[in-house]
């Protein structure tokens, strides 16, 4: 379907089904990063449009962004989607007016999805721009299946963006909700998959006994990945999918290890984040995860983490040497 606007002619690709498994999502910081991610296999691009002043009216803020227009066209030409995240309204009329104007511009530009945590803006988008997919960026306190189901009765959002730290049980629970895609932080600073919702009190740590209701089963929650902890990943530095947390073996701990389990419960998308605006580094990161996901989906039984992937990721997260 072709959608025209005064600013751009954009080809809207068919929406990705909510049940599609393990697509690859990449946040980008500039047009060069967008092209690098798309060229190396990203299925969707995340753009956080937060650098603007939402307290005063900025007429057509998105529509005036020439790089964004080029990025939308480039992504669609290469069969990738664009999702743009907007901040919450701060409660005054100027902020609301500016944000709703940007949602209108996003629709005119052919952007595929809006990522929001503000429920009022979600309702506005659903009622005024039904062609825009809504992605719900969840707060930590809201990851609960019943409350998500109730919210979806009022707002037809297509995807849940889970918090950066989330338990295995929570992932399993929300993946069971029909018709909603689930996006998980698979790589990046401050991300973690923990063993349960338990708090981090040291008194809760005791020898781990695998429980039948655990999402990934005994394979994932064995001491080979989580050591002897209950309630969380033992310590923050032992988060399985954040290289920057690990001290001695940072290159060995990441969500690459659990791709088959994530595929089995139908996680829709993995988001990989690089704390750098280097397009060449983002290209390398995307290429590693594209290869890994493709191999996992091709044969989950034979899937193995390659040492070359680990070496590449280790290099990408190592601090640059001063010389």
Structure, described:
By secondary structure, the protein is of the alpha/beta class. It has one domain (2-317): Aldolase class I (TIM Barrel, Alpha-Beta Barrel), CATH 3.20.20. It is 34% helix and 15% strand. It is built from eleven helices and twelve strands. The strands form three sheets. The protein has an eight-stranded parallel β-barrel with strand order 3-4-5-6-7-8-10-12, surrounded by five helices. Strand 1 (2-4) and strand 2 form a beta hairpin. The N and C termini lie far apart (52 Å). Mean pLDDT is 76; it is low at 1-19 and 197-253.
Low-confidence stretches: 1-19, 197-253
CA-based gyration radius: 20 Å
The averaged pLDDT comes out at 76
**Record field, number of beta strands:** 12
Layout of strands and helices, then pairs:
Blueprint (H helix, E strand, L loop, with lengths): L1 E3 L4 E3 L11 E5 L3 H9 L4 E5 L17 H12 L3 E5 L7 H17 L3 E4 L2 H10 L4 E5 L7 H10 L4 E3 L3 E3 H8 L5 E7 L4 E3 L22 H4 L2 H4 L32 H6 L4 E4 L6 H20 L8 H11 L6
Parallel strand pairs: 3-4, 3-12, 4-5, 5-6, 6-7, 7-8, 8-10, 9-11, 10-12
Antiparallel strand pairs: 1-2
How would you sum up this structure in a few lines?
The chain is an alpha/beta fold. It has helices at residues 31-39, 66-77, 93-109, 119-128, 145-154, 168-175, 217-220, 223-226, 259-264, 279-298, 307-317; strands at residues 2-4, 9-11, 23-27, 44-48, 81-85, 113-116, 133-137, 159-161, 165-167, 181-187, 192-194, 269-272.
